[in-house]
Write a structure and sequence with these properties.
Blueprint: E1 9-13, E2 29-31, E3 40-48, E4 57-64, E5 67-69, E6 76-83, H1 85-90, E7 92-104, E8 109-120, E9 124-135, E10 138-143, E11 149-150, H2 163-174, H3 178-203, H4 206-228, H5 233-252, E12 262-264, E13 275-276, E14 288-291, E15 295-298, H6 300-312, H7 316-326, E16 330-335, E17 338-345, E18 356-357, H8 359-376, H9 379-390, E19 402-405, E20 408-411, H10 423-440, H11 443-463, H12 480-497, H13 500-515
Parallel strand pairs: 1-10, 2-6, 3-9, 12-13
Antiparallel strand pairs: 3-6, 4-5, 4-7, 7-8, 9-10, 9-11, 12-14, 14-15, 16-17, 17-18, 19-20
Helix pairs in contact: 2-3, 2-4, 3-4, 3-5, 4-5, 6-7, 6-8, 7-8, 8-9, 8-10, 10-11, 10-12, 12-13
Length: 533
């Protein structure tokens, strides 16, 4: 690669499954004779997940002997052979040296290389699942040990099934409208994919390849999930909505989207930059958010953020429209004798697997559905709000989002990354808990709010760099937008708790704006009675 970026090397780092490393047969296949009994067959495939840093790569070629790997999400056979029981006891070594080239979305080419070492002790079909990570100056491909292993054991038996056929079969099993709708939308999607792939092959224009990847993503991501387990009706519905959004956009637009672009099949948005479609294939008050090589996806955080804006500005009709529509996408986890309501997200963000849950959305949902009950008197809203409040009890292993930190409990905006403590997301979850307490007087909601607020108080020295605020615990700074948001949220915490620490930090961080020659925030205090703990 030329220019400022310099030469990047993609290293394939694979953790040895067991024992020592030995040489793999050079041509990738071998038939072995043995005097100790019958022979048993072994097949080994490599599959690079379409996840994380894979979305930064447009095209790539990896070579191992005569094998060439060119696609994400596709199993490639690297070894097929027959071995004796004694050889399996000693371990069959998989030892690969990979070299190749990759291209990013700016059209810059760079070399990459690496090795894979893995030891297998029993016959069968195996898949080694790899995931690309990006660190400064380096792409790092790691073995996902939890997803690698024998097919039908550690790896789902459906791993080799066609995504579309699998999704259609699961939609047929659910019944109702889903099968026919999904069949028709998949056909549209396939035609669009073939069209843009053909344009890419004819022109070499990476925009067409990006559109192809955008259009493919809903099928590939939900297909990967369907290989692990059967999808439920909510998930099929989300798949349908995502397909319809992407298919419509790319049947009318011929340039790929840009990060955080929102698409709305309605005319009511709190933001001017939203693409509004009034006569599209669906009518929805929910935003679809774009991320490169993933296309447009329903995003509960964005939807509830919009509903929160409408609530704060007194636009209750628009708030209720979003909350009413979101009800169709709520899923439940049982915790003891309680129902926990969850809004799950079905696109990969950072290093997420799907689905994942946001504490931001869970807290805001608890508060806004309680406020909806307060506005309408409809007990269904309050029942749903209680389900979201109950979700604060779930463990991380059960789609929970609360972690215990050195500062106290923290409500994760991204529950797939427990080390990333996001300041604004945690405080906004606290706002939802406060709204719930304000409507119901529920002591659990107040306890969750108060303990979470005290966690912020203890963490503020860490989030203060001395000249700016941090967006999250893993970052050294934040954008000006988030720095200003932090100031406003700290003022809000002071108003609701009466603890002057929040006001002191708000004023200090406001001073950092002045030091940079930026216009400071206008801090206005509106103190209200503090609840009892």
């Amino acid at each position: 690669m030329k220019g400022k970026i310099g030469t990047l090397m993609l290293v394939l780092l694979v953790v040895l499954s067991a024992g020592c490393i030995s040489e793999m047969p050079g041509n990738g296949t071998q038939s072995v004779t043995s005097s100790n009994g019958g022979m048993k067959t072994l097949e080994v495939y490599i599959l690079i997940e379409e996840k994380d840093a894979a979305f930064e790569i447009s095209t790539f070629t990896l070579r191992a002997s005569k094998l060439e790997i060119r696609e994400f999400g596709k199993p490639y056979l690297v070894l097929k052979g027959s071995y004796s029981e004694e050889e399996f006891l000693k371990g069959i070594p998989i030892n690969l040296s990979l070299k190749g080239e990759a291209r990013n979305w700016k059209g810059q080419d760079f070399p990459f290389k690496g090795t894979i070492s893995y030891l297998i002790h029993s016959p069968g079909v195996y898949v080694l699942m790899l995931e690309a990570h990006h660190i400064p100056g380096l792409f790092l491909l790691k073995l996902e040990r939890d997803k690698s292993g024998r097919v039908g054991g550690e790896v789902p038996g459906r791993i080799f099934e066609d995504d579309e056929e699998l999704l259609l079969n699961q939609a047929r099993a659910i019944g109702g409208r889903y099968f026919e709708e999904l069949r028709d939308e998949l056909q549209k999607n396939r035609q669009l994919r073939e069209h843009y792939l053909s344009l890419w092959e004819e022109t070499g224009n990476l925009s067409y390849l990006q559109i192809y990847r955008d259009l493919s993503y809903p099928v590939r991501s939900f297909g990967a999930l369907a290989k692990e387990r059967n999808l439920n009706s909510v998930e099929i519905n989300i798949l349908l909505m995502n397909l319809k959004a992407n298919d419509f956009y790319y049947s009318t637009h011929h340039e790929p989207g840009r990060k955080d672009l929102t698409l709305l099949f309605d005319n009511s948005s709190p933001y001017y930059g939203t693409i509004r479609i009034e006569n599209g294939p669906i009518h929805s008050s929910l935003p679809f958010v774009y991320y490169r090589a993933r296309g447009f996806s329903l995003y509960s955080v964005a939807a509830l953020h919009w509903a929160h804006i409408y609530y704060r500005t007194g636009k209750y009709r628009q708030m209720l429209e979003i909350l009413n529509e979101l009800k169709a996408y709520v899923q439940y986890e049982e915790y003891g004798n309680r129902k926990c309501a969850l809004l799950k997200n079905y696109f990969q963000f950072q290093n997420a697997s799907i689905p994942w849950v946001s504490g931001y959305a869970q807290g805001v949902a608890a508060g806004l559905y309680a406020e909806a009950y307060n506005l309408t008197g409809n007990p269904a809203y309050l029942n749903l709000a209680e389900g979201f409040l109950n979700s604060f009890e779930l463990s991380l292993s059960r789609n929970g989002f609360v972690v215990r930190t050195e500062y106290g409990p923290w409500y994760l905006e991204y529950n797939y990354y427990p080390k990333e403590l996001v300041l604004n997301g945690h405080i906004i979850a606290l706002q939802g808990l406060y709204y719930y307490w304000k409507v119901t007087g529920n002591r659990t909601a107040w306890k969750l709010f108060w303990e979470g607020a005290m966690s912020v108080k203890k963490a503020l020295p860490y989030f203060d760099t001395g000249s700016w605020s941090r967006y999250a615990s893993i970052y050294n700074s934040s954008s000006e937008f988030y720095h200003r948001l932090h100031i406003k949220l700290l003022v809000w915490l002071y108003e609701k708790t009466g603890d002057r620490t929040f006001l002191e930090y708000a004023e200090r961080w406001n001073g950092y704006l002045k030091q940079r020659g930026l216009k400071p925030e206008k801090i206005e205090i509106n103190r209200r009675p503090v609840g009892t703990s």
